[in-house]
Amino acid sequence: MSAPPTPTGETIVYLDSNYHPLPSNFFPAPHTYTAYPHTPLPQIAPRILPATILLTSLCPLTRETLSLLPPSQLKLIIITSVGTNHVDLVYCAENNIQVSNMPDTNTETVAEHALALYFAVKRDVVSMHEWTMKAEQWASQGTGILGMNSWQGGGARSCRSEVVGIVGGGKIGLAISNLCTALGMKVLISERKSIPQAQARAGRTAFSTILTECTTIILACPLSPETKNLIAAHELSLMRRDAILVNVARGGVVNEADLARALDEGEILGAATDVFEREPVEKGGSPLVRGEGEERVRNLIVSPHVAWFGRDSQEKCVRAIAEIFEGYLKGEKVNFVV
């Protein structure tokens, strides 16, 4: 059971309120609310010191950091996102700290962003934009197809020719599956990597088969010890040379150095990612985002962890924050993880 509310009001600290800005009176008196639009890593520890309730989307809350607070002071952590890998859940369980997240707020937006990234890679959207804006080669070559990454392979296949493997059978994975099916794609849902086909659950396909047979693989799974570096050099070597990899899961699910090498060497056709192992990423801070003067990774599309963002998801998240907080005051656990 979580600790009871503080009679004199809670001290609420939001470490990265840029994700979901809340009005200053969102938490009424006698509660106090402090919002930091962004909290760099060195500032996390000092900023959480007065808190009885913490809100964060992605700031890492480790055992070392959380243990700086007096025992029993921190009562609730509201993760304003789906993933929980950045919070030490074991420490929270040991210290009677309730943790709640937002499991149903961004399902549609993440699924749609995954498809947007897929089409951006498949149709060379970014490189074709840059190629066209230069306004040089089109006139001299007479056609724009010569600038496309897929030109030598005969062009991009139609959706009805795609075999899409989805790694992650949760709500987001199923939403992606529905969109792909509506576009006429054949969809396979991956079984866990450690489970062979003979033991696969109904409706699941062995992970090894996903790698070798799918023309597109979309990652939508949580980051855990089991999924850390789920896609690395060996897995990339098994994929089709005309395959596309899309990651809307977590950065650590893919080994970034191995992916950069595979793309540069043409081991797979292309990739897109919305997530990175270390965020926010700076120029030169990831093998996928190279430093000044370095050549870009071949046929890679990136976005800055924004797949979750949309009008509907924002409204749902703000409602969920209110429901979790009101439930906590009543002694009820809403969307609780531990």
Automatic annotation (TrEMBL):
Alphabetical UniProt keywords: NAD, Oxidoreductase
A GO MF term: NAD binding
Keyword match NAD: yes
Domain D-isomer specific 2-hydroxyacid dehydrogenase NAD-binding: start-end pairs: 116-307
D-isomer specific 2-hydroxyacid dehydrogenase catalytic domain span: 50-338
Keyword Oxidoreductase in annotation: yes
Homology family: Belongs to the D-isomer specific 2-hydroxyacid dehydrogenase family.
Stored PANTHER family: D-ISOMER SPECIFIC 2-HYDROXYACID DEHYDROGENASE CATALYTIC DOMAIN-CONTAINING PROTEIN-RELATED, D-ISOMER SPECIFIC 2-HYDROXYACID DEHYDROGENASE FAMILY PROTEIN (AFU_ORTHOLOGUE AFUA_1G13630)
Protein name per its UniProtKB record: D-isomer specific 2-hydroxyacid dehydrogenase NAD-binding domain-containing protein
Species of origin: Botrytis hyacinthi
